[in-house]
Specification:
The complex is a heterodimer of chains A (111) and B (187). Chain A has 111 residues and is α+β, with helices and mostly antiparallel strands. Chain A has a domain of 75 residues. In chain A, helix 1 packs antiparallel against helix 2. Chain A is globular, with a radius of gyration of 16 Å. Chain B is of the alpha/beta class. Chain B has a domain of 130 residues. In chain B, the strands form 2 sheets. Chain B has a 5-stranded mixed β-sheet, sandwiched between helices. A 3-stranded antiparallel β-sheet of chain B has the order 6-7-8, with no helix packed on it. Classes of the chains: A alpha+beta (111), B alpha/beta (187). The interface between A and B is medium-sized, with 22 and 20 residues.
């Protein structure tokens, strides 16, 4: 008989910077807008202190934006890619249902 | 199409109004202001405010209101930018924020911003009506346009295409741009 392991999911607490940079995500003009920044250290204590804006990806579909970002190799870490996928799917729902979207925050339906 | 070059989480009103409003962590709506919206970060958030404000020379007053962003201190950092400018490393002089750096704008843009606008410090004021009153008062003091727009950042639209790319359907199958399905080599 085949045995398959079942494990309980838990979250990682540490945030590890992606060497390929980070993203600022928002809705504008009926589109999802993703700004891709390259990491910048200004000589201070923090590993990443700001970002140099490199590319902007726009569209209405989370999948199209994810595909573009992966194709252009803007992400290199699996945890970063999965975070991005979650945020973009949330944003697509907010766009379609006319909800407010703020990066890293939950979206709410008014009852 | 927006007159402001750097897209972001803001609303646009009367393009000829002399007042812009930064609401920090709050989400308000104003009558007769040129542009308004939240601003969370003391680096990228401030850069967007600077780039968009100097693109509209009618804006002569910047109201900063709402609850300050803990840790970032982006409201106070924006005031420091206007009062002190940046050093050679792009750091906003005497700013209290953790990462108060200007990276995506040149010093000319910062200098123009400091010359074009006057700050009205309403940090901590979370009464929307009170802020609207200030907007109305500042409109009465409008000194007129600063001159030509200063475009600090430009975005070039580029058509994207799926041509030449493949999409993975499964770990061992891929779809070409022309619809051909083929097997991928799997270790």
């Amino acid at each position: 008989m085949k045995e398959v392991e079942v494990i309980k999911a838990d979250e990682d607490e540490d945030i590890v910077f992606d060497p390929e940079g980070f993203f600022v995500i928002f809705l504008k003009g009926g589109e999802i807008v993703v700004e891709h920044y390259l990491n910048v250290n200004k000589g201070g204590d923090l590993e990443v202190e700001t970002g140099s804006l490199c590319t902007v990806v726009k569209g209405k579909s989370a999948k199209a934006i994810c595909d573009t970002i992966v194709r252009k190799k803007m992400v290199s870490r699996l945890d970063h890619a999965s975070y991005l996928g979650r945020e973009l799917q949330k944003e697509e729902i907010a766009l379609k249902d006319d909800l407010e979207y703020v990066q890293c925050e939950s979206i709410y339906y008014e009852h | 199409m927006s007159m402001y070059p750097w897209s972001g989480d803001y609303k646009e009103g009367d393009a000829e109004s002399p007042v812009a409003v930064v609401t920090l962590s709050e989400r308000y709506s104003f009558k007769n202001a040129a542009i308004w919206g939240p601003m969370k970060t003391e680096n990228l958030g401030i850069e967007k405010v600077v780039a968009n404000v100097i693109s509209n020379p009618h804006i002569r007053f910047l109201v900063i209101c709402g609850k300050e962003i803990r840790g970032h201190r982006s409201g106070k950092t924006l005031i420091c930018l206007v009062e002190n400018g940046i050093d050679d490393n792009g750091r906003i002089i005497e700013a209290p924020g953790a990462v108060p750096y200007i990276e995506n704008l040149d010093k000319g843009a910062v200098d123009r911003f400091r010359e074009q606008i006057e700050v009205e410090d309403m940090i901590g004021v979370s009464n929307e009506e009170e802020v609207q009153k200030m907007v109305n008062q500042l409109i009465e003091k409008d000194p007129g346009s600063f001159g030509e727009p200063y475009i600090a950042i430009k975005f070039k639209e580029q058509a994207t295409s799926m041509q030449g790319s493949t999409a993975a359907l499964h770990a061992s199958i891929e779809l070409s741009p022309w619809g051909d399905i083929s097997s991928m080599e799997v270790d």
